Amino acid sequence: MAWQETHKEQSKDRILKSAAMLFTHHGFEKISIDQVMKNAELTRGAFYSHFSSKSDLYAQAISKAAKVAYKRKPVNCPQNMKDFAQYYLSSEHRDNNYEQACPLAFLVSDISQQDNQVKETYTKTLKAFLAQAQSLTVSREKALQSAVLMIGGLAISRALDDKDFSNELLAACQKGVISLSTEEDTDVS
Length: 189
Prior knowledge:
There is one protein chain. This protein is mostly helical. The protein has a single domain (7-187), classed as Tetracycline Repressor, domain 2 (Orthogonal Bundle), CATH 1.10.357.10. The chain contains 11 helices and no strands. The chain has helices spanning 7-26, 33-39, 44-47, 54-71, 81-88, 91-95, 103-106, 108-111, 116-134, 140-159, 163-187. The longest helix has 25 residues, at 163-187. Residues 9-69 form the HTH tetR-type domain. Residues 32-51 bind DNA. One of its GO terms (molecular function) is DNA binding. This is TetR/AcrR family transcriptional regulator.
């Protein structure tokens, strides 16, 4: 019996979803190809018909993670930078291990140790995030500042072992992003 034409595409998508989830929650080094394939409910042999290496998988999984994370945002978000910051810099986003997390924040410390293909993918993903932020502001500089506050704030809050301090950090970053967007209202020339 022949496979459906979409079977290979569906298998690759299952592998990418599995890798995206596992890598964003555990990092590159702690996850093996076997773990990715087991989570995708496929054999290890299926991996090699889709990817040339674990690094190739990682690069493609970053893009997949960003797309899945973007799709799971609340329907009304982002309407403005305040809503975007409150959604992104939330304890729910930080703590939810069952949903796809943002690879920009959850992999930030992992990327500098990877090859150029992975860094290039991360850079493209950051530029897409920045474009989203910039659509909610009138200034590229404020969009850059807001993006760094959101990504950095979420990444650092996730690394802390003190939930109260972590929550305080998230709230401070939210206020920082909101103050940047409020400044825009008075900066218009």
